[in-house]
Design a protein that fits this description.
4 copies of one chain form a homotetramer.
Chain A (H helix, E strand, L loop, with lengths): L6 H9 L12 E2 L8 H4 L10 H4 L4 E2 L2 H4 L6 E4 L3 H13 L3 E4 L25 H7 L3 E4 L3 H10 L7 E9 L12 H4 L10 H12 L2 E3 L2 E3 L4 E5 L9 E9 L5 H9 L4 H4 L10 E3 L8 H4 L13 E9 L2 E8 L3 H17 L7
Parallel strand pairs in A: 1-2, 3-4, 4-5, 6-9, 11-12
Antiparallel strand pairs in A: 6-10, 7-8, 10-13, 12-13
Helix pairs in contact in A: 1-13, 7-9, 7-13
Chain lengths: ~350, ~350, ~350, ~350
Amino acid sequence: ILGCTGIVGQQFIRMLENHPYFEISLLTASKNSKGKAFKDIVNWYVKGKIPESVKNIIVMDTHLESIINKNIDIFFCALPSQIAKDIELSLANSGVFVFSNASSHRMNPEIPILIPEVNPEHINLIQYQLQKQKGFIMTNPNCSTAGLVMSLKPLLQFGIKSVTVTTYQAISGAGRLGIPSMDILNNVIPYIHGEEIKIEKETQKILGSVHNFSINKQDIDIFPSCCRVPVRDGHLESVSVELAKDVDEERIFDSFRSFKGTPQELKLPTAPETPLIVCSKSDRPQPIHDSYAGTPKRAEGMAVPIGRIKKKGKRISFFLLVHNTIRGAAGTSILNAEMAFIKNYLKKS
Amino acid sequence: ILGCTGIVGQQFIRMLENHPYFEISLLTASKNSKGKAFKDIVNWYVKGKIPESVKNIIVMDTHLESIINKNIDIFFCALPSQIAKDIELSLANSGVFVFSNASSHRMNPEIPILIPEVNPEHINLIQYQLQKQKGFIMTNPNCSTAGLVMSLKPLLQFGIKSVTVTTYQAISGAGRLGIPSMDILNNVIPYIHGEEIKIEKETQKILGSVHNFSINKQDIDIFPSCCRVPVRDGHLESVSVELAKDVDEERIFDSFRSFKGTPQELKLPTAPETPLIVCSKSDRPQPIHDSYAGTPKRAEGMAVPIGRIKKKGKRISFFLLVHNTIRGAAGTSILNAEMAFIKNYLKKS
Amino acid sequence: ILGCTGIVGQQFIRMLENHPYFEISLLTASKNSKGKAFKDIVNWYVKGKIPESVKNIIVMDTHLESIINKNIDIFFCALPSQIAKDIELSLANSGVFVFSNASSHRMNPEIPILIPEVNPEHINLIQYQLQKQKGFIMTNPNCSTAGLVMSLKPLLQFGIKSVTVTTYQAISGAGRLGIPSMDILNNVIPYIHGEEIKIEKETQKILGSVHNFSINKQDIDIFPSCCRVPVRDGHLESVSVELAKDVDEERIFDSFRSFKGTPQELKLPTAPETPLIVCSKSDRPQPIHDSYAGTPKRAEGMAVPIGRIKKKGKRISFFLLVHNTIRGAAGTSILNAEMAFIKNYLKKS
Amino acid sequence: ILGCTGIVGQQFIRMLENHPYFEISLLTASKNSKGKAFKDIVNWYVKGKIPESVKNIIVMDTHLESIINKNIDIFFCALPSQIAKDIELSLANSGVFVFSNASSHRMNPEIPILIPEVNPEHINLIQYQLQKQKGFIMTNPNCSTAGLVMSLKPLLQFGIKSVTVTTYQAISGAGRLGIPSMDILNNVIPYIHGEEIKIEKETQKILGSVHNFSINKQDIDIFPSCCRVPVRDGHLESVSVELAKDVDEERIFDSFRSFKGTPQELKLPTAPETPLIVCSKSDRPQPIHDSYAGTPKRAEGMAVPIGRIKKKGKRISFFLLVHNTIRGAAGTSILNAEMAFIKNYLKKS
């Protein structure tokens, strides 16, 4: 795990505890932490306690020389984008498989942004990479995009003309030190740097179709507006979808309720049984109550609760909630790796 | 002032201190407060200190007998709707002028929902009422609607097809006891009872045109989604407007910047010099910084700051902030009364 | 469980799931909930999800006739004090065992306030009650007191002259609807009705000694000052203890670290392995990180983390954190029942 | 004003607007801001709007060469301590008068920590400095200390044996970027670096007596415990004072109510008419309601509201509130300068 001390890094560690496929053998952090035991440098922010199995792992420097050619098969990357960029390329080139939460390579046409319930077939993009080298990079979407595309996928069959999405994003999305308390306590900040363009471009790519190892991006107008709110975890999103035609309300509900995907079929360890959970109460989903939606235990935070679904003509409006550092980051990255593992993409030739 | 102890009641009191046209002579509250001095029953929540002039006013019971035929010309009403309903009708019938923040009569076709910068001509609806009686009821819009229609008015000239609006509403909007802290601390609640239908219907009425003392409501699709956030004061709104045609971006900006209305022409005491303030910083408006936008001092909280204006084809997106208990309640009600006063509607025949 | 819908009621339900000694057979709530399934009336606020085993229990009215003579051995009471008072007396009189979180009978000299790590011998007070009837009432302390006495018990051997305690109490301590958000968001309230006198009197009783079934209260000056802070769960307390003599610092630390009691000896199911956890980091304990201190899983929230221990002459200062609805309420009540069970006090004659 | 962009710097600017004695002629900030207009670099966080008179002042670099020998008589310093240290010494040495909020020189025996209501006679310490040079440094206390000593001064006549003080400190006390939101939202942090030792040492110095230009520090045991709470402005303090003798309760109240000092006698512009305001309501003072206590307008935030006064034997307990960046920082510094000005200490020889 590259970048093990941040919140996403911690989620990787938490979610990989006793994992049936993967075992943590290396942790990296910034130079200051080099050579120290994980438990002595981390300020543990995520659910539960530090897993015993990683407490005493000696943390390495996030530096290519420290981590390359160490007999490690896959890397999970929770680094800031600017640091991730080159390291990931070098690692993939050296023959390993990189599952990255960083945004650096998401818009690269040879690299998939994968969310296995939504676009499992995009995994084929890695063929491009494998023609040139033995390793590859696979990314998961931005936190807000992850929730959004999961809610849009079942509506795609009805034809989507436009999507207007307004977010209520948790402070953990900016990292542990990202948002000063004087900026957000008793306040809302209607600006998140670079977020809106990510939501637009990533959604169009993820919902696009693959032809001959290349993606035709989905032609949907996306109008995103992003805000930071004083909430610790869980991005709420207000979504308004303009469909191509007027569809019966019950069909809309059914499409959400019956939505399943490849991870559910393959019964992947981190797959939630029900990826979209339609809330029965009229004032839900809410961050404090619903962020950890998802069963079984390993999939808590992997389901996307959705509520207040309304239809007016061709417009469908609803609220969804996505746990930003689980389904919106580490969790999807792990699910991607699980799918790749089961589908035999992680075999060394 | 009917209902003087709530937050809106307090704003009426604060804003009417040393008012050039009006003087407070009667305050009402619930039965428990009857006969006590205002300063002894109020838990002062609004800006500044309790005005000396009202501190020792003996509060009356909010009961028709206590307040009717007392030689009072106008009543400002900050009562809950269900209580306001009958009292307002009786008062108007008795020959006085009622400026009400309650929602009870807003959708009555003979009663205007007035916001003087937006639909000053709607004041003519009171002719209906004056044909039957000597008094009238005039209302101001719901708090979220107030901000929204001010931002839509300058765009109306370009033709508005639809408006998608998502709100971040402050807890003061639900009154002092409205939202339990366990419901909102570290949370967002995607539901406000009755709010969305109010935004839709009131906006269509306010932006409608008057013909022969009757309103043709504006034919715009409004898609509102409302949320409560842990912020004390100031409703932020994310607005996305679909115009009928593609308009040059600079014209949009100009229409916001140059927007003025009747209150500015008449130089009404509570009128803000610039009703829409286009924010220059990219992360504004924000509740803690911009809620009290507006000059001069008496008009603080009466201006609507607007920011992050973006254009993509026919879609205009922006954020606006409205001080929910000033422009969204007491302030507009006072502005309405000022306009009525200057236009000689408050003369006793 | 009497009063099953409040936060303490929910903690009882959560902590009694799959309990080795007890099984939930009856739930009560207010009249409105009568006859409905638990899952349909509860707004689940506590950790995890509603246990399957109680979801469909039909809730009874909290009324003596509905609950008496139903073949239930023990009642856990999470009712407000004024409602609890008479019901508890009647239940005990009818021959059942009542473990109550209500404050109504705590200062009754025949009823113990028990915290098994601190004053297990006080259980003998129930003999008084058993002379008159077949049932008894046993109480647990007020939430703030529970944490405080656990930290004072190990210091008692050195002689305690006075205790100055200032609290930072979570909003959940006032119940789900107790604190309006307008009162506490971005604020601190230096007043909690009745709390300071409870801390003083309960502490003196709990730390007192039992002679001939009667308590000599401990003669310590207690100076409590209580505040509500905008935190959901976990009461932090700043404690300053004046000892009778100057004790070596290391002995103080040791007394905290080595502190164990009857529940640990008896290995009661809800007993934390280490009841006082001395924090190693200099800025701990903190509500968000340490509220659920305690192992094993069933005892999460039952340990009291303690930190920033300082000694200056005879003064010992430190901060402690107590999960107010677990160790400070339902958890201790359950621990009391577990001890009574193991010690054969719950046998029907 | 040295360090004009931080919150204390902004308070200096706000409070010096239209000041009868002083006029702002120079502003400094970090290198990045050099050469820019104040309005373009500041993120205005304090009450009201940026004063017109400073908006266009070109900000200088906080570097000795930029500011020395510029014909400026007095400097207000809002710099971080480590930066302030040498600059202040050099400035004083160059012959100007420095009023500093930095802690660097507070414990220097030749430099007073002045709070004019409490220890006006300590101003004489500057004679030491004036023997060596033409300028001097005068400091105001740490924010928490400022409130505390104002409440202790009237009790000093009864003999104070010990003071136990526990704080609830606002996030603005750590500066605009000081506390990450992930650390404090829904949390309390029982640690503020260096704060407790400052409260202890500064209080003993301020309450000490001057003999022959030297201070005999007051021999009181001070037991401080400091916490950060999620509140924007206003430090609340829970104070428990052990008096030397048992004093009649009414005398205690009177001593608080009648407390006045030199600033009130001299009618200094920034002096509050009533420096200690005894709250009549049982749940006050509270940060959101009482932080700006003090009249006239210029003295808002300069009074210290005090409430919940209780007496038990020789122990007096109460809560006080101090606006941390006004009375606890810029305001007292300005008050110090006003007193020095009126008493002719600011004359150039």
